[in-house]
Amino acid sequence: MTAKPVAIAVQTFRVPAERVYDAILDTGMIARFMFGPLLREEEILHIRNDPHVGGAFSYKVRRGEHLIDHVGKFLELDRPHRIVFTWSIAGEGDDDPSVVSMAITPTSDGCSLRLTHEMAPKWADFVDRSRGGWEKMLGVLDALL
Asked: CA 116 → CA 39, 71, 79, distances in Å?
């Protein structure tokens, strides 16, 4: 069995863990730190989120001529410590979605978030790009909070 490639991103925040946890699940914040003009040139078509275990999400954007629908399901939600969800592009990985885990740990002046993105072996060439993307998104979230 081939080991799954993993991208890891870590970000510290100077706000409480509860605030970071809530922002990660808030559609208004998702539209600011994961997508849109603070990150890249794209048009947000919709940000739909049903944050409960088993609930699904769809974050659909237009980048140039491409429509990209980031989809997944929430596997674990433990406020304010842990968020785990599947992650794929609709039609491009539904059979073996990635799993993204976010562990949020309180610190003396805020919290630290460790994101682990476990991908299907076919996405091994995208580990560095994925890590860079998550680092950028978490950096924007930190600036917004």
From this structure: 20, 17, 18
